[in-house]
Write a structure and sequence with these properties.
This protein has 5 helices and 17 strands. The chain has helices at residues 2-22, 37-47, 52-71, 210-216, 296-303; strands spanning 78-85, 96-98, 105-110, 119-123, 142-145, 154-160, 167-172, 178-186, 225-227, 229-230, 237-241, 244-249, 252-255, 260-263, 269-274, 278-283, 286-292.
Amino acid sequence: MRRAWLTAAAGLAAMIGVAGAQTPERKDVWPEYAVPEEEAATAGRRVMPLTQEQIRLLGALVRQTQRATAGGSGEAPAGRIRRILVDPGAGAEVPAVDVRRGFTTAVSWTDATGAPWPIEEFHVDSAFLPGEGEPETAGGHLIYLAPKRLFLTGNLVVKLRDLADPVVVLLRDGGGAVSDFRVEMRLPRPGPGVDLAALMRPASFHAGDGELAGLLGGRIPAGAVDVKLEGGGPGDRAWRHGEDLLLVSRHVVLSPGAWAAERGSGGRWAYRLPEAPQVLVSLDGRETWFSIGASPQAALEESR
């Protein structure tokens, strides 16, 4: 019965809307054939028996039910961006990516220099994929995962260009407080699209600096102080962190020699350098100098 009057109410509202659109002047049509106002009111009450207050209460009940249903799937996870070092064929532990229904995870594949590594093909249960059917890789280096069910577990098998061994990844939804929103799978070797300039690194260089990888993801280390950088572009930034200088730039640092460096898939570098007033850098074969100034706070205190 309740479904019947709700359907009738929707139909009446649609008819009223159509009639209003077709008769903008809202003139009466054949008023002599209209039912008396008392009968019209009675018919309207039969079709829409709820008062305005009852309709508001019903809407509140629907919203509470929707919130309870959404809460039953667990709290929204904290997003995580990270980099995982993988080496196919080396017998290392299978890397794991934490996914969650309702959230999309982007997995990228890069070589030792951060250059994208093209994907020839990949296989995964369709329940992990957005949309319907198998996606086309088209030689890209990104895979998007969007689980369709809660607590879904499976694995991802990826065949990268020029590699004989496939890379396998464990996919899991443990319902935890953290989910991977973006993961960079980095292979410790040059790939088909290797950035040759990135291979020209100082002898003191070493990879795997977690703070530098965080800088590329927008996370500034605790205690790092922003400093003025002259000679750079809008995307170049520098910080003092203890006795080190942290630098983010698309330029390749030539001097002083970097103690550590990390390269993002977009071509940006994050460097850990010894404290220096100037840094010699190169971009597309053109050398220039970055001048390192004081922090904005220190400059303000000096001006006083």
